[in-house]
Structures are given as C-alpha cells and as structure tokens.
Amino acid sequence: MICLSLVGHLTIDEILVGGRRYESMGGVVCYAGLAARALGARVRIFSKVGRDFPASYLRILRAAGIDVSHVEADAPHTTRFQLDYSGDERVVRVPSWAGGLELNPEHHIEADAVYLGPVAWEFDLESVKRFSAVLEKVALDPQGLMRVPDEVGLIRLKQVDLTLPNLWILRVSREEAETLSGRVSPDQILERLRAFNAKITILTLGRLGSLIACGSKRFKVPSYETRVEDPTGAGDVFGGAFIVELLESRDVRWAAAMGSAMASISVEKPSFQALLSDGVLDEARRRAEEVYELIEEL
Predict the structure, then answer these.
(1) How distant, in Å, are the alpha carbons of 55, 67, 84, 231 from that of 89?
(2) What is the pLDDT of residues 2-26, one digit of tens each?
(3) Count of C-beta atoms within a 10 Å radius of residue 156
(4) Average per-residue pLDDT in the chain?
(5) Among 194, 216, 200, which residue's Cα sits nearest to residue 137?
(6) For the chain, where are the alpha helices, taking DSSP H only?
(7) Which residues touch 186 (CB under 8 Å, ≥6 apart)?
(8) Does residue 7 contact residue 115 with C-beta atoms inside 8 Å?
(9) Is residue 151 predicted with pLDDT exceeding 80?
(10) CATH architecture for the domain at 4-8+29-75+99-297
(11) 200, 168 contact by CB (below 8 A)
C-alpha cells in the first residue's frame, strides 16, 4: 500500500459560491488527503489547527482512514479562509492563522512520497529547499509560499524562485503559474515552469484540463465534463490522485487521467463531500478510462 505524507494547514473555509454561503474544512492536505485515501493509499497529515477547529472535522478524516495523530491542536486560532466565487475572479482573504510548521525529513522516512501543501506561510522557501534536498520524492503546491495580503486584506500572489534541488513534482494553478512565469499562454507558461527543474510539472487549468511536462515529453490532459457546484480544492484533488496513481502504475498518462477524473468528481458537491461518496473509486476509474484515451502528447 502506498504511504503518502501531507504537510500543510488544515483550514476552516468560508465559501461563497452560486449564491450560497457555507463553512467547511479545507486546505491542500484535506482535499489531496481524501483523494489519495479514496484511491487506497495510506495517508498521514502533518498540520496545526486551533482550539476553534471543529472536532467533527478530525472525526471525518479519521473515519475516512486518515492518520491525524500528527495534527497539533494547540494554536490560538485555525487558519481561516474566506473564498468568494461570486465575481469573475476568486477573492481570497485569510482572517486568522495557525502559525508555522516544522519540515523535518525524519518524520517522513517511511512515506513513499511527501506532498507539501502550504496554504498560508506554514514554512518558507529555504525550509522547502533543505527538505527536498534530502528526500527522494517530494511534491509541492507552492500557493502558500506565494501569497501576500494587500493593504485591505485581500490575498495577492508574488513571484518566487522555485528552483529547488531534487523536486519530484511541481503542481500549480493557472493563476499561480502566470505569476511565476510572467506569461499567459499555457504553452509558454509550461516552458517557463520547466526552468524550475522539477522532474514533473503539472499546470492545472480548470475546465481546460491540464498540461504536464515529464522529462522531454509534454501531455495535454482534458478535463472530464461535468456540472460544477463548487470548484474549491479541485487542483489539490488532482495532485493527490496523481501522486498515488503514479506511484502505483508508474504511468504519467494514467496518473493524469485519474487526477482529472477525481477532480471532476470533487466539484460536483460542496467542498470535499463528493470524495466521501460510495463508489467514488469505481466512478473515478470509469471516468479516467475515458480521459486516458483523449490525452495528447504534444
């Protein structure tokens, strides 16, 4: 059984989408962890939350079979996000923060891979560099390394140098990639991202699917067409599913197809609820088979 460690803040998300407002557990480690667990991986989350973090959220993760024994629950406040999808662009605020996290390679020796999913300044870039230099398979979603609040509290993105030693996978959204690369064309973005020297680079593009660079090869992966109720966490789900399936199959195309399939399932219900549905694995495999046939090598 594949063992995946995930490091980053579990969050409380206040989400406004489709005229509805609700509160949910969130964070890369939540969405990617539940996706990886749904695909049969053994999942451990390393995180920090506050005393305001609902006990019911940890019960959900435990019931799904995720190890949360490394989640510290003694911070004054949980990292809280306010996500507003009512306009043309997502608006993000972070009204509270749980504090920093330690990146200790010794905690992850037994893991087949580590997915670093910072969402709000859990650790800095120098810590990531030291960490990825030691371990063989480290994947990174850099959003939490790029975020800065502006003068009115809205979260913006800043450009950072993600040239990291020995990085296995870099997974970025289009918004993050445009900031990192200074480009808007997906093909040009991917070429600029490859300069960071990750062995595999994943650019997720929402409804437009994803682009993946692996060595000298590039793949265009379509999204699975479905009704979107809540897009929160779809890229995180893609990343978690991709890692597990790549470790299992050693096939980048199949891993990408499963990532696309799981992401499509996750957006059909609010927050992470679809990942807990009965039959999610069988449905993901069915969708992935369709996506796999449509993947193009560029």
Answers:
(1) 32, 35, 8, 12
(2) 999 999 999 999 988 777 888 999 9
(3) 11
(4) 94
(5) 200
(6) 28-38, 55-63, 125-134, 143-146, 174-181, 186-193, 234-249, 252-266, 280-294
(7) 174, 203, 205, 208, 211
(8) yes
(9) no
(10) 3-Layer(aba) Sandwich (3.40)
(11) yes
